[in-house]
């Protein structure tokens, strides 16, 4: 074998005859837009079209995109793209039927568009899958010399014969001087055939030194919370990160009936860079509205509070039809057309074409809205009812509707107030077909009130985590449940995940360790740039008993790692969200006595205490188009890059939160990022771009704009179908159509879990007390006193909780307690 290789090496030093027409065709395409969407390299894989799935352009000698025929000598041969593939639908078969001399091989095309870039002094791991009928094969490398051009480099490995798919792996020598690209493939130099598929090429990572801790050992392991010196001036329960890095904090009346009656509606814009707040004139009571960033960076705010509940129980909260757009540039609200119905607590999900779909909430008459609403990006308005597909189903309040990779919507089962929807509590909705398919597996579906659901990193994996929850009507102790679903499975179903770690709970007499199955509702879940999820905040019961616990969930291992807990109570009307600098901000808490926590805390994750951060030194273009390759420069090596959609969160709910992986190719400090061609994975809009090093340390984010449907059509030549991925097409389970047209869904005026017979509308005396509270006046009044309710006025003559035993119109007086 040694003499054969020596002989072959001597021949290959001479220039090789090549198919110049094929190379010219590929080169011409590299200079402009491709006529097809090429199969991209996966994360870290430097090989373009690694599985031969993308056909080459006309005139490319019948070879797949970025592959060419090569070889020399006197032999008879065929190159065939075959369906007998290791994965996908195609593989490459090279066969010699007669051989006197030379070889034949399929090589990565020798062009700047296709040949992988390399760095001098680095090594690369190469692998492929193959089947072979001949022992006369080898993995052959060529290199591009910046002065002398393309030339043979070396043979690295002989492949054993294999009748079934077998993986071969090899590591290159260090890249020699003056070399900027390489190409490689499998040479066949004996009669027989080799079929290959699924090529990969990864740079061998430099040894990563252990990061130097810049905090205390506890901080470097668990992160650090800091309570900011400046308090939030408004009672904000809605937090929207704007495309300039500032944060819109919306309060409306702030769950204060007094402010509502006075017409005092507030918002503020917080600037993380200087820690200042600017109060914004707010035209309506956006308390418990819906919101989402539009593709141009403005914020669509829909519905809100038209009325607080009547003391006599004649009506509950009411939702208005008003809708507004907030402009981050002018920091002002402007009115849109009205929605077709009122929606207090609506969902808001942006679609792949830039439209926004909304479900649920309460109407102007306090009944549940069964009207789906669609905001048209093209027309910049809410569409007329007859233009919108309807299920005539009541999806509840803040139903978590997550856009799937194929354009359908996944209702995760996370919602607000009371029981879940009928059935399994989770479903997939196909807007085009107007069908709803039940999804099984969600644990204790009627105890997922104010749980959190997130599309896990990366969005390409299509996995959703749902965690925690309770039920503010029956008011059990909140649970520790988590459920994970793979939406790419043929028949998606939730499976139980690991329980949320336990922390401490303040039951009114100081913090004690959680026991048994105690978990939390009002959970906040935040996607982090290192690919983990921070879950934080919460409470054990309805607007009471705050839980102090936080942990990092790792999707790769399906595990939780407890970290430092926010020192501030973060229950009802709290929110937590990612800032562009990689920290997490948490604000709000509105316990049942009607008070408000104006303190703001900020979490510094452990990754920010591991020494210097990588820096994105330039972004060549901040206007991105689907399917593009975008170049950035960095100041030191990075391991990955991603887009994170900025938060628009309220009541544990942000269905648009997503982390989109950007497969990368590295050439020194230049990094080329492959942008997804699927707008359902990354709906149009502004995103935070993070570069992350091998220790998980992220850069400060740069803002990039992923353009909408007009740019997509321009790039592709046509508007593609939303259903570009074939998965979950054969869902099993109960499928229903649009159903019978109905006007609304009757709901109880105590839907918010509060007994309106006592106190003012913004004070929540629970309809069901925690289990440890005995059903006596004395025990209930003691609990109310420990939670700072004080004495409460009785509304009307009914006293269902027996808190006014002496009949003086005031609850929990001395006479009431003596009698109870």
Description:
With 820 residues, the protein is mostly beta strands. 7% of the residues lie in helices and 34% in strands. It contains seven helices and 59 strands. The strands form 15 sheets. A five-stranded antiparallel beta sheet has the order 1-4-9-6-7, with helices on one face. It has a five-stranded antiparallel beta sheet with strand order 2-3-10-5-8, with no helix packed on it. A hairpin with a 4-residue loop joins strand 41 (550-554) and strand 42. The longest helix is centred in the N-terminal third of the chain and has 12 residues, at 20-31. The model is unreliable at 1-38 and 713-724 (pLDDT under 50).
Considering the chains and any ligands shown, give keywords for the structure.
820 residues, 5-stranded antiparallel β-sheet, 7 helices
Write the layout of secondary structure elements.
Layout: H1 2-12, H2 20-31, E1 67-72, E2 75-82, E3 91-99, E4 103-108, E5 124-132, E6 137-145, E7 149-157, E8 162-171, E9 179-188, E10 192-203, H3 217-222, E11 224-227, E12 238-241, E13 247-252, H4 257-262, E14 266-271, E15 276-281, E16 290-293, E17 299-302, E18 305-307, E19 318-319, E20 323-327, E21 332-335, E22 349-350, E23 356-358, E24 368-369, E25 373-376, E26 381-382, E27 401-403, E28 409-411, E29 427-430, E30 435-438, E31 452-455, E32 463-467, E33 482-486, E34 495-496, E35 504-506, E36 511-513, E37 524-527, E38 533-536, E39 539-541, E40 544-548, E41 550-554, E42 559-563, E43 575-578, E44 584-587, E45 600-604, E46 616-619, E47 623-624, E48 629-634, E49 640-644, E50 648-649, E51 659-661, E52 664-667, E53 670-674, E54 685-692, E55 702-706, H5 709-716, E56 735-736, E57 744-745, H6 777-786, E58 792-793, E59 810-811, H7 814-819
Parallel strand pairs: 47-55
Antiparallel strand pairs: 1-4, 2-3, 3-10, 4-9, 5-8, 5-10, 6-7, 6-9, 11-45, 12-13, 12-50, 13-14, 14-15, 16-17, 17-20, 18-19, 20-21, 22-23, 23-25, 24-57, 25-26, 27-28, 28-29, 29-30, 30-56, 31-32, 32-33, 33-34, 35-36, 35-40, 37-38, 38-41, 39-40, 41-42, 43-44, 44-45, 46-48, 48-53, 49-51, 49-54, ...
